[in-house]
TrEMBL record, chain A:
Record-level Gene Ontology MF annotations: L-serine ammonia-lyase activity
Domain ACT: start-end pairs: 146-218
NCBIfam families: sda_beta (TIGR00719)
Pathway: Carbohydrate biosynthesis; gluconeogenesis
Reported cofactor(s): [4Fe-4S] cluster
InterPro entries: ACT-like_dom_sf, ACT_dom, ASB_dom_sf, Fe-S_L-Ser, Fe-S_L-Ser_bsu, Ser_deHydtase_bsu
Recorded family membership: Belongs to the iron-sulfur dependent L-serine dehydratase family.
Protein name: L-serine deaminase
From TrEMBL, chain B:
Taxonomy of the source species: Bacteria, Bacillati, Bacillota, Clostridia, Lutisporales
Domain Serine dehydratase-like alpha subunit: 16-274
Name of protein: L-serine dehydratase
Cofactor(s) this protein requires: [4Fe-4S] cluster
Pathway: Carbohydrate biosynthesis; gluconeogenesis
EC number: 4.3.1.17
Pfam families per the UniProt record, alphabetical: SDH_alpha (PF03313)
InterPro entries: Fe-S_L-Ser (IPR051318), Ser_deHydtase-like_asu (IPR005130), Ser_deHydtase_asu (IPR004642)
Keywords on record: 4Fe-4S, Gluconeogenesis, Iron, Iron-sulfur, Lyase, Metal-binding
Reaction(s) catalysed (UniProt annotation): L-serine = pyruvate + NH4(+)
Enzyme type, top EC level: lyase
Family that this chain belongs to: Belongs to the iron-sulfur dependent L-serine dehydratase family.
Coiled coil: none
Any one GO molecular-function label of the UniProt entry: L-serine ammonia-lyase activity
């Protein structure tokens, strides 16, 4: 925790969890999807569903997926901005789902060739946690540079990625692997201290067991 | 160098003949790797945002997104030279509400330490700084003091209403502001610690009970009380009044009181003002509007 976590963040009100955190979740979803999209289906759960309207949670998520940061004064006009950009936005509210954190949003983005579903929660103070990408359970905050890999669940891939990063002198801060079943597709999240080079995508995708790399930088 | 209690920080400052903000700056610089200048610069830019939200909120009636509140800061500001409380308290209280109004209208603010309590620190520091003829740089440096007090509270208790009630948000902000007000006035680090303790004791037990779950009722007015109380606590400490219970014990007690609070009174809108018949009726109306 640093002093700017206490005096900060600079944000659009009224709530660090329901507004700033919601915008961060939207922005992270956009970065993770990493492609253009023309439709977003957003589900708000529990407290996000119950008090979201008054807190501008819906506007903040939309602002985030449009690329705005939590301190962007255009957040209140996010629907108009999304509409002008030709993005279809659908909301669904689920106000009593005990399975998920009180402040949870599921964001599904639909692009021309692909679609992705990203679920995360807002932890308070504007901090968030991504918990699920396309059905893979995961945990990362977006506070680090993050490499997201969709890959074949087989030996050697973690070592390949780790040695690649070692060569580039990039330190791994945290790492998490998840899979739906053995030998199937797996999700690897690598959080790094330094910013990986843009070529990380093509370099790692060069491995025949790595299907897709997304880089989200801070 | 990590110091986790106010006592450690106060001792370090007094040994060096330094201010709490000097010690905090040194600690932060070592931990984050940022230079002292860079930290000061970033605090200064946070203070600039605070000043903007104050001037937005006192110069006009800004209705909240829900329509439940608006213009409280503006209204009191018109009366600041006439009211019974005196111009300093009234200016700080109006500015605190003004920032809170901006927050409720989806305007830009600095969470200090949270969005719900974002008015207290700007209200106090801008007013005390102005009264003492301090520069913006000096006021921004005193923000470093508020931040380190907040960090100690976060580490030893909590800053979240959902965990500790309003005492953890507006109470913490008031304690943080009181310490910085003492520092701006030229008081000692130990007086700053006493001021923080006195301010926090004044709101100990305060519940978080927002009507309809919104950061408006009673949050906006509680920001004004947090600001007024911080200034009074600073005056008490500077006059030589000590907190009988040391500041670190007060902070710890606040955290314990928070955890002992029933969940109904910790930001769930299930108790307190949120559960009054008017509170419920407003909630009903707002939900229907949605």
């Amino acid at each position: 925790m640093n002093l700017f976590d206490i005096i900060g963040p600079v944000m659009i009100g009224p709530s660090s969890s329901h507004t700033a955190g919601a915008a961060r979740l939207g922005k992270l979803a956009r970065n993770i999807f990493g492609a253009s999209f023309d439709r977003a289906d957003i589900t708000l759960y529990n407290s996000f569903a119950k008090t979201g309207k008054g807190h501008g949670t819906d506007k903040a998520v939309v602002a985030g997926i449009m690329g705005m940061d939590p301190d962007d004064e255009r957040i209140k006009d996010a629907f108009e901005i999304g509409g002008k950009a030709g993005i279809e936005i659908n909301f669904r509210l689920e106000d009593s789902n005990r399975e998920v954190h009180p402040n949870t949003a599921k964001i599904q983005l639909f692009g021309e060739k692909s679609t992705m579903s990203i679920t995360g929660c807002s932890l308070g103070g504007g901090r968030v946690m991504i918990q699920d990408i396309d059905g893979f359970k995961t945990e990362f905050t977006g506070e680090y540079n993050t490499i997201i890999a969709i890959q074949h669940d087989k030996p050697g891939i973690v070592a390949f990625a780790a040695s690649y990063l070692a060569q580039k002198n990039i330190n791994i801060a945290q790492m998490k692997l998840s899979r739906k079943s053995k030998g199937d597709t797996a999700l690897m999240i690598i959080e790094t201290d330094e910013i990986p080079p843009k070529s990380v995508k093509t370099d790692l995708e060069g491995h025949d067991g790595i299907y897709k790399i997304v880089l989200s930088t801070i | 160098m990590s110091l986790y209690t106010m006592q450690q920080i106060i001792e370090a400052a007094e040994q060096k003949g330094a201010k709490i903000s000097d010690i905090a700056l040194e600690m932060e610089s070592k931990e984050s790797g940022l230079s002292a200048e860079e930290i000061k610069k970033r605090m200064y830019s946070n203070y600039a945002v605070m000043k903007d939200s104050v001037s937005n909120g006192i110069s006009q009636v800004i209705p909240s997104v829900s329509g439940l509140t608006g213009g409280e800061g503006y209204r009191l500001w018109q009366e600041r030279d006439k009211g019974l409380s005196g111009e300093t308290i009234l200016s700080a209280a109006s500015r605190a509400m003004a920032v809170s109004n901006v927050n409720a209208s989806m305007g830009k603010i600095v969470a200090a330490p949270t969005a719900g309590s974002c008015g207290i620190i700007p209200g106090v520091l801008m007013t005390v700084g102005e009264r003492l003829g301090k520069s913006d740089e000096e006021i921004a440096e005193s923000l470093i003091t508020t931040a380190v007090v907040g960090k100690v509270i976060a580490q030893n208790a909590t800053l979240a209403g959902a965990e500790g009630g309003c005492q953890a948000e507006c109470g913490a902000a008031s304690a943080m502001a009181a310490a910085a007000a003492v520092e701006l006035s030229g008081g000692t680090p130990s007086q700053a610690g006493d001021a923080a303790a006195i301010a926090m004791k004044g709101v100990m037990g305060l519940v978080c009970d927002p009507v309809a779950g919104l950061v408006e009722v009673p949050c906006i007015k509680r920001n004004s009380f947090g600001a007024a109380q911080a200034i009074l606590a600073a005056d008490m400490a500077i006059s030589g009044i000590k907190s009988v219970i040391p500041v670190d014990e007060v902070i710890k007690a606040m955290g314990e009181v928070g955890h002992a609070m029933p969940v109904e009174l910790r930001e769930t809108s299930m108790g307190g003002l949120a559960a009054t018949s008017t509170g419920r009726a407003l909630e009903e109306k707002l939900v229907k509007k949605e």
